[in-house]
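Practice problem. Given the sequence and the SMILES for flavin-adenine dinucleotide, write out the predicted structure.
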Amino acid sequence: MNKIFVNVENLADLLSIKGQYGKKGIIISGGTDIVVRMKNNMIDPEVLISIKKLAELKGIVARKTKVIIGAGTSLDEIENSTLIKENYYPLYQAVFNMASPQLRNMGTIGGNIGNASPAGDTIPPLFLMDAEIILYSKKGKRSISVTEFFKGPGKTVMRDDEIIHSIILKNNYLTEKNSGYIKVGQRNALAISIASVAYFKDKKYKRFAFGSVSPIIHLIELKFGLSDEQLLKEIESYITPIDDVRATKEYRKQVIINLVKDIYF
Ligand SMILES: Cc1cc2nc3c(=O)[nH]c(=O)nc-3n(C[C@H](O)[C@H](O)[C@H](O)COP(=O)(O)OP(=O)(O)OC[C@H]3O[C@@H](n4cnc5c(N)ncnc54)[C@H](O)[C@@H]3O)c2cc1C
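Answer key:
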């Protein structure tokens, strides 16, 4: 099959081309995920739309009450941002622990969200921050809460003519003292997580978002004073881990229980 490769350099062109090709037009940003899937014959896109040169989708901008991250911003730019490290610590920790420096240099936050993997490391921290995902199409712009965006592994509410433009972060009180992101992987430090937890704690309650243990990530809020048994019941109602090549469901469940207990008590 003849393939079409388009290198877009402005947003208007991107929206026009995505509108024209719809489902057939696959966006490639850093390419760290999509190239692997193409090499493994998991996908064979007819039209590849590269957004690598699209400056409008790159960068981190601070506004009065929020921070905007362009979807094409590389993971290492996020890792090296003092603004992110000081105000959105779980996101910094998640990115810091992802893959290798080379991969963080190429991979983008938009690609991590676009993958819609329950193991995507940036996703649980975005739940804690009540992040908004900004989608663009030729028809206009819409904003979706991250809690509404994912519909299952590899599935989102994005229409075929839409692209992820940016991510808006709120809740800028997530510091090294009150929050974090813990990832448990295989021995290889570059590995995708077996289970992970993003958390925030203050005097009244604790918030958790778990990765890799359910098809869709949930945000849960637990008040202080739960017994060991009540805590276990709460956790179990939110996770549905599966067996795969990386771990058994029992192991995943135990990892989450241990992590939450450590943070809660
Ligand atoms: C060796 C290796 C290790 C890895 N380790 C980790 C890890 O530790 N943690 C982790 O979470 N991930 C990991 N990954 C997965 C991947 O690197 C990340 O998900 C990365 O953030 C993807 O970004 P990208 O820009 O390269 O995405 P791409 O490969 O370019 O795209 C990924 C998907 O998102 C879509 N997409 C990209 N940008 C947009 C946009 N603006 N609008 C709409 N759709 C878009 C693409 O169409 C595609 O479906 C790893 C991958 C490899 C190969």
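Check your answer against the key. The CA atoms of residues 236 and 253 lie 8 Å apart.
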